[in-house]
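fwd from M.: "can u put these together and see what the complex looks like"

so here's what she sent:
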Amino acid sequence: MKPSTLFSVFIIAEENEAVKELSSGLALMGFACAIASREEIVRQVVESATDLVLVEIDGRSANSRLELSRRIREERHLPIIALVSRERLSDLDDDLNIDDFVITPCDVPELTLRIKRLLRKPSNRRSGELINCGNLVIDMGKCAVSIKGKSVALTFKEYELLKFMASNRGRVFTREVLLNKVWGYDYYGGDRTVDVHIRRLRSKIEGSSHIFIETVRNIGYRFK
Amino acid sequence: MKPSTLFSVFIIAEENEAVKELSSGLALMGFACAIASREEIVRQVVESATDLVLVEIDGRSANSRLELSRRIREERHLPIIALVSRERLSDLDDDLNIDDFVITPCDVPELTLRIKRLLRKPSNRRSGELINCGNLVIDMGKCAVSIKGKSVALTFKEYELLKFMASNRGRVFTREVLLNKVWGYDYYGGDRTVDVHIRRLRSKIEGSSHIFIETVRNIGYRFK
DNA sequence: GATGTTTTTTAAAGACTTTTTACGACTTCA
DNA sequence: TGAAGTCGTAAAAAGTCTTTAAAAAACATC
């Protein structure tokens, strides 16, 4: 994490001394913090350039705050960390809307590390999602594919097929499944269609150096 | 997490009082724990039915333990939690091989919750997609078989045969039954076919060390 | 509507897998 | 001990699936 990249953190909590202290602690670590406690902030969070949300889960407002984080998640996929008291730990039992938690009172170094780790996860990067397989890069934001930095022109179906397979690396897909997932559940047509697309994809992305798509006889194909 | 499902946790740490206490604390929460500290355990972890690994990162062995977790990850995608002292926190800065961490001395409820949350993530579920027999692993999602971490190339029928027998371990199958279950109820062909496939399977998965398929004279074959 | 591009279909060639056949070794039972 | 049945192996034959190329159809653009 370069110090030059400034990440912006939204803290949803009562604005008391402890929280203010936390906020300035994070500011010291290079995060731009904002504190708010009203519920109307969902809009604000979603629409602003927020990178990550901290939600305080305390006695009185536990449920409403969990609900809040759920709503934020629904609108935009933003990493969320709960600040939770030891007593309220069990509230997080079933909640997968929250990515991580720390027990209050907060230890700033621990929280900082947790924030960093969440922001480093590729799926949480603001930068449009990328799939990165060796020297093949699929930029799903741009719908562009490049290999060793050189961009490769794929047709729509080729791109969709590659994207699907690459985002489930290692798994074997039958032609039928590919037809379902890439062409759509209601597509009616022959298996050979898949073969042909695979062939063209291969001819575009595979040189003599690397093989990306493996055929698994009697079953289908796999992206390696 | 139903209480009926028993998850198995491997703790890599010095076996001191604190760790033993932690282990029994987790046992109380319904986890089957095993402790080990030597490095040779990579094999053991990968080959056993372990669901999750705890790695203690302390002063002396920090780097080697991190390396260890990297190696475990390489062999099999298993969730890993670091038990780390406050002073060693920064060692986790760049390490994405570790899924989560807790600061020692451990708070058992917190650790339990972190374990639960990791195991609940779909990508970490044992999910019935993996058959694990000693050092033989059948990954049904990838349609891949590996033995001591080394992947083995099987043909379709070999794979199907192995999958069927391995998922009914200990049971004896007549050739007729195998023909029915693997080849299909309407298959018409001779018994020798089974023998030949068994032979080729054996030659691929059995070394001098382990025998997986046992011949039961006058009846048929049995796995393990 | 003509043109060029993308997608699907078709069919033959090729590669690999599976089955059959045949035979030797081994076990069981009279 | 010999006959009958069972099992393991190798090689050839049969079969199946995949690749390939080329043509037809669908689609988009002007």
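replying to her w this: The longest strand of chain A covers residues 7-12.
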